[in-house]
Each structure stands twice: as structure tokens, then as C-alpha cells.
Design a protein that fits this description.
Shape: globular
CATH architecture: Alpha-Beta Barrel
Structural class: alpha/beta
Number of strands: 8
Mean pLDDT: 94
Low-confidence stretches: none
Distance between the termini: 29 Å
Order of helices and strands: EHEHEHEHEHHEHEHEHHHH
CATH topology: TIM Barrel
Radius of gyration: 18 Å
Oligomer: single chain
Largest sheet: 8 strands, parallel, barrel
Length: 301
């Protein structure tokens, strides 16, 4: 059911005041994104703070997301699960648990205490492919992991593992122009979806790509769907949509990433406690800046 194409929304994991995942709110987020027209969701990634959750919490989140759309009367969209971990054993265990909970695909950023080299990266994906028969999106977190996947390495992964997509940063400093084209050329004929992440760059007009991966789209899916559809068709999106999304991403860029999404969620009527520590809540001045932008959001039909 999954292709890792189109607009992929990465919801937060809402938390109750007792610091437990709020599965009802999560299901509503998934359902709302599906009704708005996103092409898939990814849970437990950076936006969803999956590394802070225990195995039973992760399992419950995946099951809630899988059931969330249909339960809310929304279309069923593919649900992908981020399974990154600090060891291959942990990654494989999370991949198996995601499969058993109904995941359609996996998203994996390979990392370790020490930066990995290409052979070590490939070995992680080979281990996942041996354990779980699900398509995998390579999450290229080059700044955080100190390993930037090359076009040749991506092609190697596509040939020898279940890697079917890449999520590449659109806004990394000194990222060369033509990066999407280079990744596509290296994987031609291998069925790899080349996607981009980074809301400021995407909203600002990044290179055309097979997919957009964004946490913000899970909170404001109507605007993001309108932007994606307009750009994909070569049309000009509504000026208010672009201006509003640019203003919103500018404010969020000045806040801690997961904390900013939780604060924005509350302002949009999505109840959640702040993310688990060590992330700290957004300070009052940051909340005020977000509130000012949210107040300028146009009513949705």
C-alpha cells in the first residue's frame, strides 16, 4: 500500500497531563490529515519523539495511527513507522514490532554513538531487510549522524536491501543544487522515491521532488495539501497560503523543534502536554509569536 510518494505528514505524539501518549488525540490527528488529502503519515520520528517512548507505548501509538483514519471516517492512508535506534538489535526489534502493529513501511536513520561508515550503514539496512519484509525510507539526518548518504550508497542500498525511498534534507548548509537530480540518476530504474524534508526550504520553493516529508503538515494539513498540489501541477498556490506558511515556519525555526510543534498544537486546538524531557516547553514569548501567526490563519472550508 505504500510508495513514499506525495505529501507525508509526521504527527507529534500527543501526551496527556500524566505524560502518557494520548491515543485518541493522535488518532484524530491522523484522521484529520487523511481527510485533508495527505498521502501518508509517519509516526514516532523526530516530530513524534519516538526515541522517548517505551516499547509498549510505541506499539500503542502505531496501532492507534493505523486505526485512526478509518475510525474517524477518513480514508485509509499508509502508516509508516520510524524505527531508528542506537544498535542494530534495537532497530530490528522496533522494525518487527512496527510490522506486527500494522505498519505499511519503515523510516530509518542509521546512527550510533560514533559516526558510521558506508559499510556499517548498509549492514543495518541489510539486517532490517532480513528480519522484516517492509519497504524502508532512508532518513538522511546528515548533520546529526555525521554521515551524508551519497547517490552511489543509496543505489547500493536500493539494490541489496528493501530501501525504496530517501528523505533528504532540503536545507542543509552548502547542499549542492541538483541534489535531487543526482539521487534520481543514481537510482534510475530501482523504484526509489526521492523526498525532501525541511519546512522553510520546502515552503520557500525547494527543488521538485517525489515526496515532501514534514511534521508541520500533520498540524496544518489543509494548507500543506494545497501547496503540494499547486506546486506539483505547476500552478501558483494561493498567496495567503504561502505567506502564512512562511511566517509560521520562520517562527518555528527559532524554537526547539519538537517543543514548537507541541506549542503550536495547543494553539490549534490539539491538546497535548509539552514533550518529554530533556526537551523543554516553549517559553511564553515563543508561544506569543506563534499565537500571532495562528490568529492570521484563514478559515478552512
Amino acid at each position: 500500500m505504500t510508495s513514499f510518494h506525495g505529501l507525508l505528514a509526521y504527527p507529534i505524539t500527543p501526551l496527556t497531563p500524566a505524560d502518557a501518549p494520548d491515543l485518541d488525540v493522535l488518532a484524530a490527528l491522523v484522521g484529520g490529515a487523511a481527510r485533508a488529502g495527505v498521502d501518508g503519515v509517519v509516526v514516532l520520528a523526530s516530530s513524534g519523539a519516538g526515541v522517548t517512548l517505551a516499547p509498549d507505548e510505541r506499539d500503542a501509538v502505531v496501532r492507534a495511527a493505523v486505526a485512526g483514519g478509518p475510525a474517524a471516517g477518513a480514508p485509509r492512508v499508509p502508516v509508516h513507522v520510524a524505527v531508528s535506534g542506537t544498535s542494530t538489535r534495537e532497530v530490528v526489534a522496533r522494525a518487527r514490532a512496527a510490522r506486527d502493529a500494522g505498519a505499511d513501511g519503515l523510516v530509518l536513520a542509521p546512527f550510533s554513538y560514533l559516526p558510521l561508515d558506508e559499510d556499517e550503514v548498509v549492514a543495518v539496512f541489510e539486517a532490517v531487510a532480513s528480519a522484516v519484509d517492509l519497504p524502508v525510507c532512508y532518513y538522511n539526518r546528515s548533520v546529526q549522524t555525521a554521515y551524508d548518504v551519497t547517490p552511489g550508497a543509496l543505489a547500493r542500498l536500493a539494490r541489496t536491501t528493501t530501501v525504496a525511498a530517501v528523505k533528504d534534507p532540503a536545507s542543509t548548509p552548502a547542499r549542492p543544487a541538483g541534489r535531487v537530480a543526482a539521487l534520481r540518476a543514481a537510482t534510475e530504474g530501482l523504484g526509489v522515491s526521492v523526498g525532501l524534508s525541511g519546512d522553510p526550504a520546502i515552503v520557500g520553493g525547494a527543488e521538485a521532488a517525489d515526496a515532501w516529508h514534514t511534521g508541520l503538515a500533520a498540524l496544518v494539513p489543509e494548507e500543506y495539501v494545497a501547496l503540494r498540489r499547486a506546486r506539483a501541477s505547476g500552478a501558483e498556490p494561493g498567496a495567503h497560503v504561502v505567506t502564512w506558511l512562511r511566517d509560521l515556519t520562520e517562527v518555528l525555526a527559532g524554537l526547539r523543534p519538537v517543543s514548537g510543534f507541541h506549542a503550536l498544537a495547543n494553539l490549534l486546538g490539539v491538546p497535548t502536554a509539552p514533550p518529554r524531557g530533556p526537551s523543554l516547553p516553549v517559553p511564553p514569548d515563543g508561544v506569543a509569536r506563534l499565537r500571532e501567526v495562528v490568529a492570521r490563519r484563514a478559515p478552512t472550508p
